[in-house]
């Protein structure tokens, strides 16, 4: 079993804006990063330095211009869509800042869905969902309602519950503690500690410095990979 | 000497119809298109059957024409007279005496022989018509043997009535291949279609001819749990006492009294001639006398 | 894993005009692929070529039969192709009335495919129809009603039940949520997602609604003027479009 769960080599990214004079904007160049099992690495850097861009590239959501991103043996840069989908289903979890779900689906089912997708039996999946929603203090009377009608903070917690439902060996966390009160923040940090303890490799963006110091083993300043920003940090 | 060509139609037309008949006999249950002619009677009065009969008759034939089993109804009488005039053939009301029988809506009760031909008048030859209006599509369904739709019709019957309510024009499958409309005969007659005589079907307005050679396998469609039943009124004939014949229900007066009589008039008459007596026969003779 | 469907160099012309040209892709079991593009982009032409409703001028549509052999559905005999289309394939039309028999009861509509493949036991056919109506959230009490008595959303769900009753492996959908109210769309999308997951269905969905493909499709193919201009993971194509046309398409969506 390889120890490095996520290995990024010489990664680059450009955006070509065809409808705005075909402007080519380089946003990343020569990025390297390894994350071991049980390790949590924080991405830092000023706003616009490319933290979210890097995270999205690891998830296969943004297309790389060059280099490689190997997650559990799969190079996301080269992989076929179905290989990336399998990776996302089994290995790589992602808690984004936004909850995107089918309207009208009950919260409980939204949280249980990642487990159903990996073949967990329906009742066991719902049990895990109930447990997470309880931990994250989503009142039980909301469980049968769609989260699309929830407040921002509630949506964020449902998103976290969904992200932690399946025990992914690798996880990407984009501001998981933003807009949470102290109690819920502590719960989320506990979930992250738990995931690390079972060997999950985690890449996170935390503006919350105290949270970052508590759960992260290392910090990587992505602005060193940003063309035009190199050396500025 | 009649002023008509034998049996009204010209020889070329009869030849064309005979070719269609032969093709139909070669492919039992398959609807053969033919160039239906204008006949001196309206569509719906048996123009298809008349053209098939015209192409089938020879001067030596004896013709019988029935409508709903009866020889004496307007339609039967007109067609019989038509051929008496245009072909000069002998006619009869006795089933056993006839070599060609043209029929509307019935098969005679008396078993037919190998030297007889039964000609059916058909209003709508396409059994799939009411579920699939496109002729292009139904022809494709026949050619590819896609007959699931036929059972949808029977399914709808059971769903709506608790049993297969289709009681006439009950669809059959011929020799395990073509699904065929038997013309609007009562389903009581369906089992008789496996017979010794040749059966020819003519649809004038729709310009189709189809046929069953003697002893052809003819299976009425059904479900395992709703099997086909050749049903008739649970009653003996009130005139001749027959228990095995298809019956017409006749309302006798304004008080709603009624009687059941054989729809096959020749069958009933010959039974009475042989001495069989039904429950109301005596009373009826009295009234007549 | 071997693909369920291999599409190779499919081209279809209407006279001089291109319907679609040189389309290639593989679809694997359990995958849902979306095809987007504006009206006239060739997406419906392509779908109809794949489903055997149109005959392409060039190319092959190889489908993995139940015995594991890959067969070209373009050149196979019509009886074979029609047999496929009522067993292993399903086609969900945009307008339910194109995919339903409006003068036949809901139960008869669902039962037809069963009867077409030889089911001859009324009780079993009806039980299966009722079961499927339940799976698409239509009450058993409506089993003898005709689709004309159903709302648009119910008709669409009935069409789905009618298609899935024989356990197909590949479902073609042409704008399955088009013409429905937004709230009805959501329910239908959720239903489709559940069925795709439970039955392990592969599906090809043609739509011009980017929100629909984001929620339903794993992969996306973008078409313009009969050509495929971009393919990839659905969220990647929508969030990081590479082709000029896709960028225009994505940036043209009104935000709510």
TrEMBL record, chain A:
Its EC number is 2.7.8.37. One of its GO terms (molecular function) is alpha-D-ribose 1-methylphosphonate 5-triphosphate synthase activity. It comes from Shimia marina. Gene3D superfamilies: P-loop containing nucleotide triphosphate hydrolases. It comes from the Bacteria. Pfam families: ABC_tran. PANTHER family: ALPHA-D-RIBOSE 1-METHYLPHOSPHONATE 5-TRIPHOSPHATE SYNTHASE SUBUNIT PHNL, LIPOPROTEIN-RELEASING SYSTEM ATP-BINDING PROTEIN LOLD. Residues 6-233 form the ABC transporter domain. The keyword Nucleotide-binding applies. This is Alpha-D-ribose 1-methylphosphonate 5-triphosphate synthase subunit PhnL. The keyword Mitochondrion does not apply. Keywords: ATP-binding, Nucleotide-binding, Transferase. Belongs to the ABC transporter superfamily. SUPFAM superfamilies: P-loop containing nucleoside triphosphate hydrolases. It is an enzyme of class 2 (transferase).
TrEMBL record, chain B:
GO terms for molecular function: 4 iron, 4 sulfur cluster binding; alpha-D-ribose 1-methylphosphonate 5-phosphate C-P-lyase activity; metal ion binding. It catalyses: alpha-D-ribose 1-methylphosphonate 5-phosphate + AH2 + S-adenosyl-L-methionine = alpha-D-ribose 1,2-cyclic phosphate 5-phosphate + methane + 5'-deoxyadenosine + L-methionine + A + H(+). One of its GO terms (biological process) is organic phosphonate catabolic process. The keyword Acyltransferase does not apply. InterPro entries: PhnJ. It comes from the Bacteria. Its EC number is 4.7.1.1. It holds the Pfam family PhnJ. Keywords: 4Fe-4S, Iron, Iron-sulfur, Lyase, Metal-binding, S-adenosyl-L-methionine. Belongs to the PhnJ family. Catalyzes the breakage of the C-P bond in alpha-D-ribose 1-methylphosphonate 5-phosphate (PRPn) forming alpha-D-ribose. This is Alpha-D-ribose 1-methylphosphonate 5-phosphate C-P lyase. It comes from Shimia marina.
Automatic annotation (TrEMBL), chain C:
GO terms for biological process: organic phosphonate catabolic process. Keywords: ATP-binding, Nucleotide-binding. It comes from the Bacteria. InterPro entries: AAA+_ATPase (IPR003593), ABC_transporter-like_ATP-bd (IPR003439), ABC_transporter-like_CS (IPR017871), P-loop_NTPase (IPR027417), PhnK (IPR012700). Signal peptide: none annotated. Residues 5-250 form the ABC transporter domain. Pfam families: ABC_tran. Gene3D superfamilies: P-loop containing nucleotide triphosphate hydrolases. GO terms for molecular function: ATP binding; ATP hydrolysis activity. This is Putative phosphonates utilization ATP-binding protein PhnK.
